[in-house]
Specification:
Number of domains: 1
Distance between the termini: 15 Å
Helix content: 55-70%
Largest sheet: none
CATH class: Mainly Alpha
Number of strands: 0
Radius of gyration: 15 Å
Number of helices: 4
CATH architecture: Orthogonal Bundle
CATH topology: Arc Repressor Mutant, subunit A
Length: 72
């Protein structure tokens, strides 16, 4: 999985008219990954329908990590 900053870079380069091949080369991600994030309309995290018994006690910590990562 790549970070939010890399996704933003991919989308910005695409908006500026760079090709998928060029974006992949510059960002260091594969062309299918560039296409995936180029074509995504909604980048917000999806809610999970089921909860894990193992993760439930750690949900607040994990949510904090995700919020922190989203700032970058």
């Amino acid at each position: 999985m790549i970070g939010v900053d890399k996704i933003q870079e991919i989308r910005e380069m695409w908006r500026r008219g760079h090709s998928v091949t060029e974006i992949a080369r510059v960002t260091g991600v594969s062309e299918p990954t560039v296409r995936k994030y180029r074509d995504m309309d909604d980048l917000s995290p999806k809610a999970h329908e089921t909860e894990s018994e193992l993760l439930t006690p750690h949900a607040a910590t994990i949510d904090g990590w995700l919020r922190n990562d989203a700032r970058y």
